[in-house]
Amino acid sequence: MFRKNMEEVLERNIRFTLDEKKKGALLHILGIGSGKNADAKSFLAIGGAEKYAVKPLEMWNFPEESQEYLEACIARDRARWEIREYLDDDTVPTMKPYYGIAIHTAFIGGEVTFGANSSYHKPLLDDYQRLDELELREDNRYFRLLLDSMEYLKKRGKEEGFLPSLRGGDSPLDIANAIRGNDLFLDFYEEEENVERLMEFCLKAARWTWKHQMEAVEEVAGGRMTGQAIWLPGNSIGHLSEDASSMCSQEMYETFGKPYLEGLMEDYDSAIIHVHTAGRHNLPPIASVEKMKLIQLEYDPQQPAPIEVYKANEAILKDKIVVPIMTTDEIEENLEFLAEHKSIVQLYAASLEDAERAVNLIRSIR
User: Fold this and answer.
1) Tens of pLDDT along 311-334?
2) DSSP-assigned letter for residue 220
3) What is the bridge-based pairing of β-strands 24-32 and 294-298?
4) Rounded average pLDDT over 286-295
5) Beta bridge partners of 163
6) Angle of helix 172-180 versus helix 192-216 axis, rounded to 10
7) What value does the mean pLDDT take over residues 255-265?
């Protein structure tokens, strides 16, 4: 078992999400050995776990080596959980196949570059006359890589004691940005009708990938584990990336972003959406999507910290469960605020001692 008291911790998360009270906090420690200025996906080796480090994505031959890669990820995560065995936070051990951000859109076609522990989907729509050529194929190599890997982790999770989760996905607007590139933001002004056509296709693509992901991951206590390792009830999805909202005005977002996000959510009960603090000007339309029950706030360089954005938008976010990435110092400085609001705090702790301090702080406000 990755975590001996996993059933107890899972039940704690379920009760928190279902509770109608709008106060309280959970603490999800996502890594130990990395701070807010480090790569959020890094895990600096402690306690001898460095031998389980997974080589970068660009050094693997996918899909041929996908199972070897997944086994390396399982061994790494097993070592991480051994290190934190006695840490009493609220993190549920989950795993998803991580092949970088391109996996959210590469099922449409086009080329993918692996590098820097992520992946990048080369824009493939260079002319709107080619829009009708875009298609969704179940035999796409990257789509099969994702779905086959989710099936593999489903089997291994039963053996190892972790819960397989949804991988996550892009909002329709982020899909459009990935396949059109940053020309999309000029198109808002110069190609309005074509952008609307593109957004209809991207809504179809988002529905398509979520349908398949939902079929690949089993229910957990009447809900599912999202790609943010957060349990949501019923027919819920997440996380949804809404990065492109950082690069367009609220007027443009309300025209080309929000309607299609709402269209996607017609199929589901709720979701968690991932938003960067650089896009905080679009929190009002995003938060107005009723089924968007959870909003995760991500750090950005030279921008206010997630907790500061949370506090500045307190009224807008009052009916949401907010998921801010924080440091332990920020938790301590904002304990009173956290005690009066409903949050799932995500932390990349600097050390085990730092993690234990964060646990004690959150426990003090329960």
Assistant:
1) 999 999 999 999 999 999 999 999
2) B
3) unpaired
4) 97
5) 94
6) 120
7) 98
Instruction: For the beta carbon of residue 327, count every other beta carbon within 10 angstroms.
Output: 20
CA 41 vs CA 26, 32, 91, 225, 347: distances in Å: 20, 11, 16, 19, 11
Greatest CA span in the chain, whole angstroms?
59
Residues in the chain, overall count: 366
Q: Does the pLDDT at position 35 exceed 60?
A: no
Contact 217, 235 (CB under 8 A): no
Please name the residue that has the structure tokens 């009493």: 88
Q: For the chain, first and last CA: distance in Å?
A: 27
Where are the alpha helices (H) located in 166-302, listed in sequence order? Answer: 172-180, 184-190, 192-216, 250-256, 258-265, 283-287
**What DSSP letter does each residue of 119-133 carry, written as one string?**
EEEPP--SSGGGGGG
**Which tens digit of pLDDT belongs to each residue from 80-113?**
999 898 999 999 999 999 999 999 999 999 999 9
**Cβ neighbours around 30 below 10 Å, total:** 17
Paired tokens of 67: 């199972």
Tokens 């406000």 correspond to 365
Query: Taking the CB of residue 306, how many other CB atoms lie within 10 A of it?
Result: 26
List 349's β-bridge partners, or say none. Answer: 32
Rounded CA separation 151/298 (Å)? 29
Instruction: For residues 97 and 167, give the distance between their C-alpha atoms in angstroms, rounded to a whole number.
Output: 7
pLDDT surpassing 90 at residue 39: no
Could you give the CA distance from residue 37 to residue 301 in angstroms, rounded to a whole number?
9
pLDDT of residue 51: 67
Q: Are 359 and 331 in contact (CB under 8 A)?
A: no
Alpha-carbon span 226 to 96, nearest angstrom: 9
